[in-house]
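User: Um, what's this?
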Amino acid sequence: MCIRDSCYPGQEIIARVKFRGTVKRRMQRLQLGLHATLMPGDQIVDNREKKSVGHVLYAAPTNSSKTEMLAVLGIDAQDFILENQPESPLTLECLPYNFDS
């Protein structure tokens, strides 16, 4: 492991994956069907169980009356909504890069 303040960017994350063995969360691009003011840390919950499956990192309105966001989601999350906007569906959008696993 690296010593605090002497790591290369991403080194700690790679070490955690190597020693713990799995990736459980991933950054995803999402879209909300309306303009909304979202804050970093707003919770994303499972639509049925209402338990947290992720949180918003960054959100911005688009020109087409929607809100796009980057969020950290559990890799097995499928049917999810914003905790403070339960009536508005979230859709998963493609990221501008690919990953193998």
The mean pLDDT is 85. The beta strands are 25-32, 43-46, 52-61, 67-74, 80-82, 85-93. Residues 61 and 67 are 4 Å apart (CA to CA). The two ends are 23 Å apart (CA to CA).
